[in-house]
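> forwarded from #structure-qc
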């Protein structure tokens, strides 16, 4: 499959009326696969950026990996949600897996420095820089959650997906999605409150 360039993908229009292309792509029609991936590439790019950050060095590779994963996942697409939403779910799952691989390889101190930068947590820094640090650390914390919880929370909080779409993407009831998001938020808060550095970063009052 030819690589879909990120710059080109960002300018493509996403069209959710792709039933015919989906049917042909399932039969490995190369033209249909290319057209389908071109249509959903902007949403896939947005999903990967949401999980990894816009400056991730492996952003392009993870986008391509997500598109390939989408082709493999097409037989399981039942049409219960827009194809673009399904593609986002695949992209979030792929990006979180990529992030977990990186975290397994990188030393703990390097992980924290990568997310928070070299300045002290109590330094007088710009509000936007602080916000970016918290978001970056949240991305790493998501990878420590059970996969289904991390994926649901990423779709909800980082991509602003609604509950019915998330439920359709994963083929589960809405109440299951609600439960996964609730458990994920509780686990994240527990993790943050247990670590002084994280409490300082997220400005959580432990008292």
């Amino acid at each position: 499959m030819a690589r879909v360039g990120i710059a080109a993908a960002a300018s493509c229009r996403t069209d959710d009326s792709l039933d015919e292309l989906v049917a042909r792509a399932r039969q490995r029609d190369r033209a249909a696969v290319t057209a389908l991936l071109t249509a959903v590439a902007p949403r896939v790019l947005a999903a990967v950026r949401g999980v990894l950050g816009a400056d991730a060095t492996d952003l392009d590779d993870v986008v391509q990996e997500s598109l390939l994963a989408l082709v493999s996942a097409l037989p399981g697409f039942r049409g219960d949600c827009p194809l673009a939403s399904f593609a986002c779910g695949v992209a979030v799952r792929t990006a979180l897996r990529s992030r977990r691989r990186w975290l397994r390889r990188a030393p703990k101190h390097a992980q924290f420095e990568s997310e928070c930068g070299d300045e002290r947590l109590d330094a007088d820094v710009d509000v936007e820089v602080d916000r970016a640090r918290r978001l970056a650390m949240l991305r790493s914390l998501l990878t420590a959650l059970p996969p289904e919880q991390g994926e649901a929370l990423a779709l909800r909080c980082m991509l602003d997906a609604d509950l019915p779409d998330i439920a359709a993407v994963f083929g589960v009831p809405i109440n299951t999605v609600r439960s996964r998001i609730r458990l994920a938020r509780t686990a994240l808060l527990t993790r943050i409150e247990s670590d002084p550095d994280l409490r300082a970063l997220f400005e959580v009052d432990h008292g």
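QC bot note: The chain has one domain: 6-201. The chain is about 70% helix and 0% strand.
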